[in-house]
Design brief:
Distance between the termini: 61 Å
CATH superfamily of the largest domain: HUPs
Radius of gyration: 22 Å
Number of domains: 2
Oligomer: single chain
Helix content: 25-40%
Strand content: 25-35%
CATH topology of the largest domain: Rossmann fold
Length: 338
């Protein structure tokens, strides 16, 4: 019987990326249901910290140290090293490590920018197919069955690999990251020989000064749309987010108008979020935006149009001027915290 492998990414703080914790949780559940061993793989210049964090989610983790992962594009280095481990999966040196060392039936990676690059490079190196942006994965006798949202979230499809094996990228925020009951083992692994991919040199790294916490991880999001009207209008959105201890989000229309940065865009072409509370201000609720926030715990919308599409899926719809309603809410919040 084969195994399931999870290729983990490094987050902005140098620890385990949240999307990888979610992917590991899904892989662990699939492993329990299918009877397959689950293995986590961390490729980094110094994999120790991330490997230790990943071991709180998975029973076995391999840390592959490669100095090039710190200097070159991580996705190319990681794909080469994982492909090397797969090629050696039948060797006695790996077989001694147990069932997790078996050639994987599925490789799971987060569907972020780096994860997508890893999946594409691994596919080219191994010949395995890719099913992208999974919203759910189940296991059958024929292998993994992947659910995907298509056509802007209007339809759900299910797909499987013709050969029963392949690579799956998992959409952010479709799984709640949950640590395992016990911490797994961590081992260091070496991959002989150079990577078979050309080196991709990183020529520049840019950090946004004063950047807010990633909205994908926010428990509360206050989001503005076209109805906010201007960059100045987002001052109220920001004030509400600050008072609630949350983050600011936006629709594509607001971003395209230059009122707020792309890093805050939520929707089909932006971020996928899953906060406990989503406060939508001046947002119509078009399907492209709904795709990015529909899994929020509670959705509260403020819109002057009672027939706006967001009324169909919001838990609470307040019909009125967003500035009047928003200011009243802000005053109430401040009076309670004062």
């Amino acid at each position: 019987m084969g195994s399931l492998w999870v290729v983990a990414e490094i987050g902005p703080d140098g620890g385990l990326a949240r999307i990888s914790a979610e992917t590991a949780t899904l892989a662990r559940e699939l492993g329990a249901g299918s009877g397959r061993a689950v293995l986590g793989i961390v490729v980094a210049a110094d994999p120790d910290r991330v490997a230790a964090e990943l071991a709180t989610y998975l029973p076995a983790v391999w840390g592959v140290a490669d100095p090039a992962a710190g200097d070159l594009a991580w996705s190319a280095v990681a794909a080469g090293r994982v492909a090397g481990l797969m090629a050696a999966a039948g060797a006695s040196s790996l077989a001694a490590a147990g069932a997790a060392a078996d050639a994987p039936d599925a490789i799971l990676v987060g569907a972020g920018p780096d994860g997508r690059d890893v999946a594409g490079a691994l596919s080219a190196l191994t010949g395995l197919g890719v099913l992208a942006n999974a919203t759910a994965v189940t296991w059958t006798d024929a292998g993994p069955v992947v659910e995907m949202s298509v056509f802007g979230g209007k339809f759900l499809t299910t797909s499987a690999f013709s050969g029963g094996r392949g690579i799956i990228t998992v959409r952010p925020n479709v799984v709640t990251a949950t640590p395992a009951g016990s911490t797994g083992t961590v081992e260091s692994r070496a991959v002989d020989g150079p990577t078979s991919l050309p080196a991709v040199r990183v020529v520049e790294r840019v950090s946004e000064a004063g950047a807010a916490a990633p909205i994908e991880e926010a428990r509360i999001i206050v989001s503005g749309g076209r109805g906010v009207g201007s960059a100045e209008g987002f001052a109220l959105v920001q004030a509400l987010a600050d008072e609630l201890g949350g983050a600011v989000g936006a629709t594509r229309a607001a971003v395209d108008s230059g009122w707020i940065g792309y890093s805050q865009q939520i929707g089909q072409t932006g971020k996928i979020v899953k906060p406990e509370l989503y406060l939508a201000m001046g947002i119509s609720g078009a399907i492209q935006h709904k795709v990015g926030m529909q899994t929020a715990g509670t959705i509260v919308a403020i819109n002057r149009d009672p027939d706006a599409p967001i009324a169909e899926f919001a838990d609470l719809m307040v019909v009125g001027d967003l500035f009047e309603v928003g200011t009243a809410v802000l005053d109430q919040l401040r009076s309670r915290s004062g």
